Amino acid sequence: MNYNWDWGVLIREPYFEWLVSGFLWTISVSVAAWILAFSLGSVVGIARTTNSKLLRGIGTCYVETFRNIPLLVQMFLWYFVFPELLPEDAGMWVKRELPMPEFTTAVVCLGLYTASRVAEQVRAGIEAIGQGQRNAGLAMGLTPAQVYRYVLLPVSYRIIVPPLTSEFLTIFKNSSLALTIGVLETTAQARQIEEYTFQGFEAFTAATLLYIIVTSTVMLLMKLIEGRLRIPGMISLGAK
Amino acid sequence: MFGEFDTSVIFDNLHFLLEGMQTTLILTVIAICGGLVLGTLLALARLAPFKPLSFIAGSYVNFFRSMPLILVIFWFYFLVPHIVGRPVGGFYSVLVAFVMFEAAYYCEIMRAGIQSVRKGQIYAGQALGLTYTQNMRYVVLPQAFRNMVPILMTQAIILFQDTSLVYVVGVKDFLVSADLVANRENRILEMFTTVALVYFVICLSGSLLVRRLQRKFAQ
Amino acid sequence: MFRKISLFTMSAALLLSLGLSAHAAESMVLKRIKERGSINMGHRESSVPFSYIGNDGKPQGYSVDLCMKFIDAVKAEIEMPDLKVNLVPVTSQTRIALMANGTIDLECGSTTNNLTRQKQVDYLSTTFITGTKIASKKGSGITEIEDLEGKTVALSLGTTNEKAIKRVAKANGINVKTLMVKDHPQGWLAVESGRADAYASDDVLLYGLISKSKNPDKFQVTGRFLSFDPYGIMVPQNDSLYRRIGTVTLADLMRSGEAKKIYDKWFNPGPTNINMPMSATLKTAFEIQALPH
Lengths: 240, 219, 293
Known about the structure:
The complex is a heterotrimer of chains A (240), B (219) and C (293). Chain A is mainly α and 240 residues long. Chain A has helices at 15-47, 53-67, 71-85, 88-97, 101-129, 131-139, 144-159, 161-174, 186-197, 200-229. With 293 residues, chain C is an alpha/beta fold. Chain C contains ten helices and 13 strands. In chain C, strands 10-9-11-8-12 form a five-stranded mixed β-sheet. In chain C, strands 5-1-6 form a three-stranded parallel β-sheet. A three-stranded antiparallel β-sheet of chain C has the order 2-3-4. In chain C, helix 3 crosses helix 8. The chains are: A mainly alpha (240), B mainly alpha (219), C alpha/beta (293).
């Protein structure tokens, strides 16, 4: 196989802009989905540690549903099936009026999926603290909400920093699935450059480097932060 | 646009869908076996006293863990034939991609498993005069595997779900077969709902089994 | 008379194959087919009626029929009548890469022969001529690309249509929103479900999509040709011996009128009722490409 190397293609018009725009889409999808995943995941995770049977049941159902269907299938369900299940007007609104439909769908899908994983980490974090602290809090006359607010959550979030970092990196990598519904993020742009120029090696290498740079930077930053957040005498939960 | 939910489209194409599921399962099983073998070797290399070896294994793992699986699939699908110098079919390309990718994850699981074996056991082996290889083979690995069964199974379920990503290169797995039927018969709603349900039932049964095993091992 | 001709063709074919076998060792593609014991045929899954998966799960269509003739000639050439045919599904995004990297030995789909692609792959004779048009719902008020101002058009990634629409829209300052889709069914679904106002593709493929939809009466194909797209069977680059087998096969089919018969089988009216009698341009193209021996 002879292959014509041409690394210049990566900085040529308009391919350089494609890569940049793809990278920005990747970041936007990841960050927006992470905000959703983190907030919703926290709520679901906390629900699974409460004393209410109903809340625990809802939390469990949520986690099991989202964890046991492949993410790609979920993406298709949100994009193709969900609008058809709505009343016609609402379905049409989702398909036409929703701002940036592909982007929004990808964010919602990734966010809801990752929330189920975040929820598991939050729950593990709270459970790692043990019943003693909870009882101590209650014995002091704190309401259950106060126990969570002042005793359980401050500690549990600090010990689950490493697994949450790895969940963020997972969402960052999973954002590439958005290409299946037409979001032109980094991987999609690499493919498009390959299609237009036939310089597959160069395009894919560029995409790979972009992912590695972000992953390494995030890991490095979090290592620094982890050191400051670590609670003396308590082990932090390892990334799974 | 979809009209009534029509289940007959599923039964009419059952054979076609089952063939797709077969591909999915074959892909999963081979990727597990290949990934496990390569992953174990990588884990041994990572923990080996010889520095360059552990550095190479570590870089391999970090490299693959930094990349989205879709990108890995594209890499192998388009570019491996260039490197090999001869054509590699779609199925084999993604198979290689999955084995290489999963190995990085299995390596980390194995490493944790090996490190979970108490140091005393290793010292005991050394005291008995076992070499490094013998110690690994007869003392450490058998115990490590036992500790890891639940997490290995969880990884298998994740892998089973991840194989659906071969969609991006059109290998005819369960999802792609369903997608083809959906487009041919104009029955998107039915097909995608069915696919989701099938995956859900299989994966949920798997996770329930894992939980049961976990409880058994904990006793 | 008939006998004479068939005798003549037979001897010609014999001479031809003898002449070719002398060089067979030099054809890389034939060599790898021989070694492998199989030929890898790339096909599409939803390019109706060129190359698509039929109800039996196997690829069929106009291009597939022509490719089968080509494969027969390859079998005769390398004297392997039992040569296995491996079916490799390709998409508009993967076909060129898979041809360039040697995964497939021929591509039977609906691929436009253009000069950029010829940097990577070669083509056999032109077997169909079409161009980019727009499909939309009847009553949508869309006829030309100019009517898409502020509306959404679905485009298949990596197609010549994508480039054509973007080029024309830019040149005429038309503000069109684009929705990128993976393949024809996804593009069509976008129009059918109302996600996009129109889908731009080769006119023949649009007719094919409409004919297979649930309500063919509700949709229309309109507008001027926005690009010129001659289709050809794709083959690996730099293998003139291998390519010549295809050129000879197609020239024979076009000369004998069999190509026209295969055309009518799929288009006039065709299994999906596409109803496209052969255009005068294509007829002329067939006459010109029916090179003498």
